[in-house]
Design goal:
This protein is mainly α and about 90 residues long. It has 5 helices and no strands.
Length: about 90
């Protein structure tokens, strides 16, 4: 899907097509995918769409996406001076 707002570079889709892909490789792909999203993108929503679209039980990318979904629900991104401020 060219121009896919949920997977702009088709990284996740391609990860599911790589035979024998490992969890560490999927984590690297996930990081690249997350960094490729627009700053105002709802990351949790995008992960949910990708899981619904591609999620295959037992596939390492599915596990990485599910882990990312859980961790994104608690993580908050702070940029600018607030991100560098010491608590």
């Amino acid at each position: 899907m060219k121009g896919d707002i949920y997977d702009p570079k088709a990284l996740v889709r391609e990860a599911y097509n790589i035979e024998g892909i490992t969890a560490p490789e999927c984590r690297t792909i996930f990081l690249d995918w997350a960094l490729s999203l627009p700053e105002d993108q709802d990351t949790q929503g995008a992960i949910g769409v990708l899981l619904a679209r591609h999620g295959v039980e037992g596939h390492p990318m599915t596990e990485v996406l599910q882990d990312g979904l859980q961790k994104m629900s608690t993580a908050r991104r702070r940029g600018g001076w607030q991100g560098r401020r010491k608590s």
